[in-house]
Amino acid sequence: MLLNQLSPVESIHALGRFSGKPGLHRIQTLCDALGNPQDRLKFIHIAGTNGKGSTATMLASVLQHAGYRTGLYTSPYLVTFHERIRVNGTMISDSDLSRLFEQVQAAASTLKLPENEHIGEFEFVTAIAFLYFLEQNCDIVVLETGLGGSYDATNIIAPPEASIITSISLDHTAVLGNTVEEIAQTKAGIYKPGSIHITSNGQADAVYEQLKACAPDLIIAPDAEIISADLSGSKFIWQGKTYQISLPGLYQVSNASTVLATLQRLKTKGWHISDQAISDGLLSAYIPGRMQVCATNPYILLDGGHNPDGIRKLSSSVKSFNITGSIRLVIGMCKDKSIRDAIKEINFPVQKCYVTPLQNERTMDANELAALMHSICGDTVICQDCAAAIAQAKTQAAPDDLILICGSLYLVGEAEEVLRADRKGQNISL
């Protein structure tokens, strides 16, 4: 099929994840051709292995409640591509996406790039986002990196209002490095002079050493004291004030602490953010696919945890919920992840495990994953797809059981569609 016969989203995906030698020269050349829209915007830039999407969403929610027109750029998406680009919580429309796709495509077609290089998917989408946020007259844009930091396409922005690095752990080692020190050094590339430099608490000393080498004025977000935590969210004390979030998971309290430390510093730079806006913004922040409760009787919980650190934090949260019934685990994973190390972090009892392949070329073979899961969980079955796995788990679950769906954001996206169809009384198979 020819590129011009594809939809804008299909055409963007066809560009591929990797487009040549790591560097900012392609995105900079493209943005030069578009008039450098990013230079007329203000940003909060966020990198990290885990927690950056949640941190970005909470920050955007607070800034919106404070009265600022707020852009939010995240990845990947769960159900619809448009989730990646939002203004005040509203996704970019089909018409705006199509129009800006044509504009960026026209600019890209005129570029002279090094041999065997082209504008890749993330570079293309980032250019669309810059144009859209400028058109929408955003006061501030919360900008999440795609991969890494130094050579991430988002890193062509001028020094932002604040640069945040959330929890760092081993992931994408083939690209970012084989140690947390190497990964921290890569992600610290978003730290620029003149910006507030924040990072999450609870990380290894080696990580902080690398970050401080790039940003001597680094601020480590103070920790919070948790008052209560369950499937409805958490209540905690930070710097003497009580806050509440609707996002389940102990790790979300750490993310909220990073948000609060950032807001505290932004206020010293002249940003007007009231205590009420902070409380309301944190409480109303909603992040699909991150400890997302989709049903009760039995509980169905979605989480995109997919690497060792993510599964470790997921396990800690699940154990804190005091589930009275059994836990049934629906899992599918990408073959390019640290799968063995990740599933070793499952430290809660599993009644039964339902393994499903992902509807994605990166999926791990279901038979191989099932063999690994059997060594961890015991009773394990292979299902045809996500829909079949969820249907079997629901049929076998008691009302007080928990069906936990995790292992990949791709799986979470598939599960979202299945559960949405179930609520509409439809019967679809992914």
Automatic annotation (TrEMBL):
Its cofactor is Mg(2+). It holds the Pfam family Mur_ligase_M. It comes from the Bacteria. Residues 289-408 form the Mur ligase C-terminal domain. Its EC number is 6.3.2.17. Residues 46-262 form the Mur ligase central domain. PROSITE patterns: FOLYLPOLYGLU_SYNT_1, FOLYLPOLYGLU_SYNT_2. This is tetrahydrofolate synthase.
